[in-house]
Structure formats: structure tokens, C-alpha cells
Amino acid sequence: MRPFHHLLANNLVANVTNFTVWFAVTFWVFIETQSVFATGMIAGIYLVFTAAFGIWFGSIVDHNSKRLAMLGSSVVSGVCYVGGLVMVLLEPEGAFRNPYGPYLWLFILVVMLGVIAGNIRSIALPTLVTILIPEDSRDKANGLVGMVGGIGFLTTSVISGFLVAFTGMLGVLILALAATVLAFAHLAFVSIDEGRAPADPNVPAEPKRVDIAGTIAVIAAVPGLFALIFFATFNNFLGGIFMALLDAYGLSLVSVEIWGLLFGALSTAFIASGIVIAKTGLGKNPLRTLLMVNVITWAVCCVFTLQSSIWLLAAGCFVWMLLGPYAEAAEHTTLQKVVPLERQGRVFGFAQSVEQAASPLTAFLIGPLTQFVVIPFMTDGAGAQTIGSWFGTGPARGIALVFTVAGLVGLLVTILAFNSRYYRELSAAYADNKDDDENGGAAVADPA
């Protein structure tokens, strides 16, 4: 466990660094330009790049030492942050205040590429869990991974705000560069036995290519695995509603200062969840745990905006954040069990690409739909006349209705998934692989 704990600590530093840069550049661009368009585009760049690069990053992880891939991630991030720092120091007068200026957007692209390079780590770490952790403890290890993500999320929002307020992007990039060098230096001295056999000069090496067709064949070879990925994609599709509307709804109830403090406090649920998973695990069937978590979270989504109450909203967000790591850990544990190790990077990368593509699509669609259809519907339209007497009327109640409908749709889809043959097939595949491991057998064969 010692190398694994070193990897967790190293990833914590890298994740906090990269996400601090992302949050900071968003805050800073808004302060400089006062443009909501610009901040929205930054979020879109992150999500689109994550979806676009996921499969390629997965192939890098599969074809190389996981540790080397993570070191390479730090190198790319560091180079990008150096580039961003140079651009800050050489900024032409007023270039960063023009929300449509090429200098600003070149700077954003350079810095965001440094952030995106960190996604290699999020693909490599689950594969290292497979290598370093015994099968019966992987669910608990995945809980620790989720806890590290929660700590990073909590600290990032605080650090980035203070850095931008007192130092601007100059201080952010100097600190990011120093932390990236620290993470690289630490990982360089961490010894990891990845079980990689020395290359045999008489055996042709596997071509180092992305191999999307081979990855799809591996996923298709496991009954129900495509359904799991698309189920997660659908959840992210609905989850894009939170990305687009949660801040607007929260700020309709409290001031921006209270909302920021409240959201930071609620983020401790990620940490609590990771600790509990690390102690108790996910049960015999992680897939069942995944669906049960979705039943609870979507049921909560149905009711946490029924009335205009910050306490009701806070309780709903806490449940979501508390149970979110369970869903992620359950998906990772299932994939680690049923996918051959030599293909896990590409499968995790494929899942990341497909799943992350859903949220920005919803975020881009739901904003205009809510603004021009649902809000008028609940302000002086048929919705206000039909349910306004008890649900409430006005723009905030229009946003609330979107959350309630999303919860009902998510709950219905989860119940259907619970009763589908795909759930039964994938649960059986997981159980069969567990039995094979206990009897000295192998995991699912790689059809490629």
C-alpha cells in the first residue's frame, strides 16, 4: 500500500494544482473582461477537450509505464504553465481585457492544455489500483481515490479565489509551476512494480496506436459493459443541468458570499464519502450499489427544489456530493474487474470521452431552453396557472421545475436499468470473474 499512498498524495498535489489553474483563469477572465460568454467558453473548452483527448490519453497509459505517463503529464502541464507565465509577463497593454482578443484566447488555450494534460493521471490511477491493490480491496482503494478528489475540489475553490484576488494570474502560474515541479520530483523517486515484462526482441511489439476498434471490441466482449458506460453518459447528460443552472438557482436564494461558503462546506461530503467507502467497501456487487445510489440521488433531485428553501437545497446538494463518489468508485471497480489490464487505459479513456461529452451538450441546450421556455412557462404561462399556487412562480421556480423533471427522468431510467438484462448480464460477468480469480483463473480475455 505504501506506493499507492504515495501515488494518492502525488495525484492530490497535481489535481489541486491543475484545477486551481482552471478555476483561477475562469475567475480572472471574468474580472478582466466582465464577460459571461468568456467564462462559459472556458468551461466548454475544458469539457470538449476532455472528451476529445480521453481515448488518446488512454492509449498512452496502456502502451507505456503508468508512472512514465504520469510524469509526462506533469512535464506537459509544466511547459504549458511556463508558456502562460511568459504571456502574462509580455502582455501587450490591455490585451487581457478584450474578451474577443486573440492574445487572451491563445493564453486560455495554452493554460487549459496544461490543465487537460492532467487528465492522463485520472486514467492512469485506476489502472494502478488494478496493479497494486488486491481484488477484494479495490473498492476501498477507489473510495480513497474519490476522497482525494473531494479534498482537491474543496481546497481548489478556496485557493484559486485568494490567489486571483491578491496576485492575479502571475501568482497563480508561479505557484502552479512550483507545485508541478514538486509533483514531478516526488513521483520520480516513487518505485512502482507494474509487473511489465521486459520486451522480447524476438516477439513483435504491439503497435502503439489508439486502436478505437480494438477498444470497442473489448467493451463489446463483456455483456452489459456498453450499457454501463451509456448509463453513466445519460447520468452526465442530466448532470449537465446542474452545471448550467445550480449556481443561478442558489444565487436566487442567498448572496454570492453565502453561496460560496455554503458550497465549500458541502464539499466536505466528498471527503466523508471517501472515508466511509475506504472502511466499508461497496458490497459484493458494485453495480447494484451504483444503481441504488442513482435511485437515491435522483429521488432527492425530485424534491430538493419543491420549495424555495436554501436548507432544502443544501440538504439535496449534500446527498448528491456524499453519494457521488460511490457511483464513481462502483464504476471503476466494475471496469477493473471485467476489463483486461492491458486494455484498461483505453477503456477508461473511452468511458471518459463518451461520458464527458454529455454534460456540455446539456449545459449548452438547457440554458436557452430554461430561459426562453420554462421560465416564461412558470412566470405567467400555463405552468404558473396550473401549479403555481403551491409550487411558486417566477424565474427561480422555472429553474426549480427543470431540476424536478430531471429527477423524475433520472429515477425512471434507473429503475428501468435495474430491471434490464444488461444489469443482470454485467452483474453475472463481474461475479464470474470474481469466482475465476478466487479459483486462480484469469480475467476476461482480450479479443484483440
User: What is the oligomeric state here?
Assistant: single chain
- Tell me the helix content: over 70%
Mean pLDDT: 83
Q: Please give the alpha-carbon distance between the first and last residues.
A: 32 Å
- Strand runs, count: 0
Shape: globular
Which properties best describe this structure?
448 residues; mainly alpha; 0% strand
Summarize the entry for a quick read:
By secondary structure, the protein is mainly alpha-helical. 81% of the residues lie in helices and 0% in strands.
Could you characterize the architecture of this molecule?
By secondary structure, this protein is an all-alpha fold. Helices cover 81% and strands 0% of the residues. It has 16 helices and no strands.
Topology of this protein?
Elements: H1 2-33, H2 36-63, H3 66-89, H4 102-117, H5 119-132, H6 138-188, H7 212-221, H8 225-251, H9 256-266, H10 268-280, H11 286-303, H12 310-338, H13 341-379, H14 382-391, H15 395-418, H16 421-438
